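RETRY 2/3 - previous attempt timed out on the joint model. Re-submitting the same 964-residue input unchanged.
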Amino acid sequence: MAQVEAELQPQAEAAPKPQGYWSGVLGRLAGDKVAMACLIVIALLILSAVFAPWLGLADPYRGSMIARLKPIGTEGHILGADEQGRDMLARLIYGGRLTLFIGLMPVVFAFFIGSALGIAAGYVGGLTNTIIMRVVDVFFAFPSVLLAIAISGALGAGITNSLVSLTIVFIPPVTRVAEAVTSGVRSLDYIDAARASGAGALTVIRVHVIGNVLSPIFVYATSLTSVCMILAAGLSFLGIGVRPPEPEWGLMLNTLRAAIYVDPWLAALPGVMIFATSLCLNLLSDGLRSAMNVRD
Amino acid sequence: MSATDTARSTAPLLSVRELKKHFPIHGGILGRQQAVVQAVDGVSFEVAAGETLGIVGESGCGKSTTAKLLIGLTQMDEGDIVLDGRRLGPDMSLKALRRDIQMVFQDSYASLNPRMTIGDSVAFGARVQGLDDPQGRARRLMARVGLDPDRFAGRYPHELSGGQRQRVNIARALAMSPKVVVLDEAVSALDKSVEAQVLNLLADLREEFGLTYIFISHDLNVVRYISDRILVMYLGEVVEVAPVDDIWNAPAHPYTRSLFSAMPSMDPDNRTTKPPLSGDPPNPIDPPSGCRFHTRCPMASEVCKRKHPVLGRMGQGSPHWVACHLHDPASGHPKAAEGASV
Amino acid sequence: MTDPILQIDNLNVRFNGKRTVHAINDLSLKLMPGETLALLGESGSGKSVTLKTLLRLLPERRTGLDGSIAFDGTDIMTLSGKRLRSYRGGDVSMVFQEPALALDPVYTVGDQIAEAVMRHKGVDKSEAMATALDMLTRVRIPSPERRLKNYPHELSGGMRQRVMIALALACRPRLLLADEPTTALDATVQIQILLLLRELQREFGMAVIFVTHDIGVAVEISERIAVMYAGQIVEEGTTREVIADPQHPYTQGLLAANLHDVAKGTRLDAIPGAPPSLETRPDACSFAPRCPLALPACRAELPPVKTPGPRRRVACLRAGQPIAAE
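RETRY 2/3 succeeded.
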């Protein structure tokens, strides 16, 4: 009696080689041309920023009265020179260091803090959820630009303070997304099944929740990096972020503002960098979103 | 089946007493409690070792909530669960209960972690409970439910068919070596041809591991096929419990009768001509007074609106229990004397 | 003999994408006016795709279609624009499985029915409302005047399905397509809806194609049954013929799996395996890998379609042969 048909799938598809989830994601991402192009651009930006001192560039801090506002294409200054005669190419590349750092780190911090808060709120529910989410709602009442300006203004200018204020700005949206995704996963039967096998809350979260909520939160956070870069640049532009003479794209945009009637192309260069980087980050996060979709 | 004959004479393996779960509904700006869903209201039953108890009823009758209360996925408001003589709480922890009672859910896809290989999913429970060799257990059980572990252990849920996934869920439940398995609409989402395979598998496993099933379904044919006894629920209450043949041949409660006659006839020359009931089941938020079925009952009388019928035996020592004034000569129902003959 | 209201000849539907799926393969079907046909099949058998094709609801860019579908003599594959719109909802309408999703939550029940009537019949609002009221009465909704002003979420599941039916029948279609309309309902409500549909069919005289996976439901509702497997009709006949004398092994297996009056404890004669994935077009009997009676020839070529009686057909090499040796 106890014989079970060892049938199942008569057309016996050749068992696909079991592959990890992340290798699958990378494989699909590699097939996405737009995302790959963006990834290359961002990688180049980061690499050039990191290795700037070894690229044989001009000193980004040394000005020259003669070279002031040299246009793009001038010999010795391929991308021209700024209002103090500092080499634009060098300043743009060195500027990438700070800009990318302040653009990415707050999102990284916010990703960890917000995910933790959101997962806790979504999984535990009840009063914990109410408290966390109502506090988050308070932050949502302010536009993010205003909030960043207010906090930075209160803390004072400087790189650390910019990092802190931007992190605070991005924790609420990440928390909200994390909470929504976690509540969704929480109601699925496999969480019940895991609880029914006697696992405690922390085990269930570690094994079953995190893996399933982290990727949507991660994708969302990637899309925040472009906003964060623009905000960071904005803070510097307003003079409450990075202080001169540090090269930073937002700050450069601000100081070159006066030259916009003299040489608009030159003045627009830092803006172009901000635009291109945030566009690439956005497209990359789109690509990541579709690559992380397991079911097709 | 011999297992059930011996089982009936001994003490019950699982006994559930006066289980109650009310869900408050909050509303308004202040989130004040506005109403209560009486999902499960005083449900009691016993299951003998090796027996299969079928639970039937329509949506909102509380059968799925009962299942979740049994393994503590939903916390009960009141009631007792006694398993093997140990009472949940004083004698037994929730974790211990969850080792002895396992559950298989309806949605085979939602009940598996999409990011986990099925081998890991099956082994997870055994690992949590600290049983030895979880991987080996998982592989043995996968083979037992008809899934070659070499081919399937490394796959993800979306690579399997519905029937295969439900086999995985069954293997996972069995990996803890439970005594009782609650099957909550476990075959309802499967295609008929696959359902029959899984029912055969469930019957084999019951025999081999000496399992006790609580089988919840809306499909009366399936419940009749697999169960030793059938329990009928209506709006959070038990209205009738009896051995399968008794209830099938002589349903006592008017609701049970309606439920049975609502089944498609399967005879083209003799189709159903009159619906046994009109309207939908009432909302469990505000259940009717007295007997909860009186609003739809063809036999309802004045007493049914006032007095709540209690679950009682049909006769001295009878295994057939019913909660209906018709079968209680002392109830004051005008047709009570005629009782079961109606 | 009268002309068929619907005639499908050699319909093929293929979904192109990352994975090609041959959803419908050489399906032919004839439906007479006023006839009720149950399309019986499991998930993935192509029964719902057939309905969608009939209404031309499939995404055109991703779908490869060939074959012909004639509704009352008109080729519907060529319809477009206004004619297509009047065909959909006017000549042919559909009842869905999940009325909660098919009804628009922001309009009252009366407005939704009246809107459809105004669009197809070109009458004014008050007349359309009168029709809506009449329809609600016909689908036996208690106190229909009050229900006209209800929103879908204020109704119970059974009531919503009645409203859905009223909406579908408001323009007096000549063909009603029903896609598992009772699957989501409770047993005692399901039988009410089935009986209602049966009565309305008699009253309105339209033809009905009722898609279901439940043989019991098919028996209750239909005069004829067509059993689908892997995008093909494997057996067709009157309900009586198919139930009393199933000739295709798949139909026989389905009937056995219904568990109607199966003695407790007996082992079920389950059909092994699972349906094919249809990534390639079948070039042999699709059921052969699961069939207990399969011969080598079944795996080599497409099965012949045998016609044991008028309008009765079985796509099986062994149909009609004695199966005593089982």
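The longest strand of chain B covers residues 32-47. Closing ticket.
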